[in-house]
Amino acid sequence: MRFKETREYYEQHLVRQFLRIRKLKVYDAIQQTIVILYPFMLVGSIMELLRESFLIKGSYFDELFGTVAMIPHANGINFFLGSMSKLTIGFAGVLAATEVARNLAKKFDKDTQMAGVTGGLAYLILTFYDSDQGVLGFTARSLGFSSLLFGILVGVVTGYIFKYLSRKVDTNQPKGSVIRDRMFNSMWAITVTLILSAGLNTVFYLLNSKALTPEINRLLIQNVMNTHSAWVLTGGTALSIILQFIGMGSPIANGQMMGADAVSNLNYALQHQSAWNIPNPINAHGIIGIYTNIGGTGATLGLLIAIIWVGKGRQFQRVAKQSLLPGLFNYNQSTLVGLPILFNIAYVIPFILAPIVNLLITMSALKLHLIPSAVYQIPNGTPGIFMGFIGTNGSVQALILSLVLVAVDVLIYVPFVEIGEKVNADLNQGGDAE
């Protein structure tokens, strides 16, 4: 009884704190924007799932059933699905800039359409480049799911420029006058935003594509690829997940990092016809890319199951069920934006904790020789719960461990699902953001 009362006290305290932050105008605008991205991310992730699992030579279902040879015009379908994925998930930053600017303008009683169009255009200007060969394009890092943070920042800046440099929308004017006045009322805000974007183009390009993000990714991958240190693996995993939480992408979430140690392990396993007793059992390839993030960054398969199990909100249930299929194959973009998880402080603790717990359990199982090491290459599009099984060449112990980890992740997420639903219930009763 004492434990129940203590839990309820801290749960109510967390709900109050989360609710206070959630009601901030800028935070509310970001959360609304992330949810709006859901249908695009769901479609894109399903397209990517089909392409990676069925239509790439050597992929999971191609290895099982020879789908590339069996499906007519597989290469053409592969190209179409890849294009659809890039034009949905790839435009996450542009959509974020547009919607954050529009949502903020609405909260400030400014012109939402003008602000939204300006925010999207400002993002494209910031990431635009003209090469020496006369080829026009956009920086590679600006068109992808990892561009969300940059899109959100552009949208926030645009929204506040409209707050201070444009006039409020007068809905009492005749329609013809409103249409003309919208241009003049927003002219200064549009001009300043676009000039600022053009002026910062070079700086933003350097931060986004040549310095900040790739440098962080490179350092993370280099430091975890050949390490045997539990501390380095844990720290690298935590930092990678935090980067995903703030919309910068997770460089080591599910990658098969075949460094020197992983190659040495593979050679040993092939030579001895066994994945047991390899020289370097604690390594990134055999742990992070296979067991740590089952369901995608943040081990979100456990979250989806937790919502389906204990969730009461109809909309959350719907998102969880629709995102379950991509989640089984470690595509969780729709989960991250549909609930949402990104920038949602109600979920930051389990989002980081679940993968770290998975990491520690897996390292303990390896040290106790309860499972063999995952040393073999895994086909593209393999379901997350089968990655350990395939990476160990069919170890039942590895499959059982994957199922246990998912169950642990569910238990970690359950109390936070309940807290998240209480926050949203209170928000729906509490009115507008402050």
TrEMBL record:
It is a multi-pass membrane protein. Keywords: Cell membrane, Membrane, Sugar transport, Transmembrane, Transmembrane helix, Transport. GO terms for cellular component: plasma membrane. Its main location: membrane. It is found in: Cell membrane. PROSITE patterns: PTS_EIIC_TYPE_3. Residues 10-416 form the PTS EIIC type-3 domain. The chain crosses the membrane at residues 26-47, 79-101, 143-165, 186-208, 228-248, 290-311, 341-361, 396-416. Pfam families: PTS_EIIC. This is Permease IIC component. It comes from Pediococcus stilesii. The lineage of its organism: Bacteria, Bacillati, Bacillota, Bacilli, Lactobacillales.
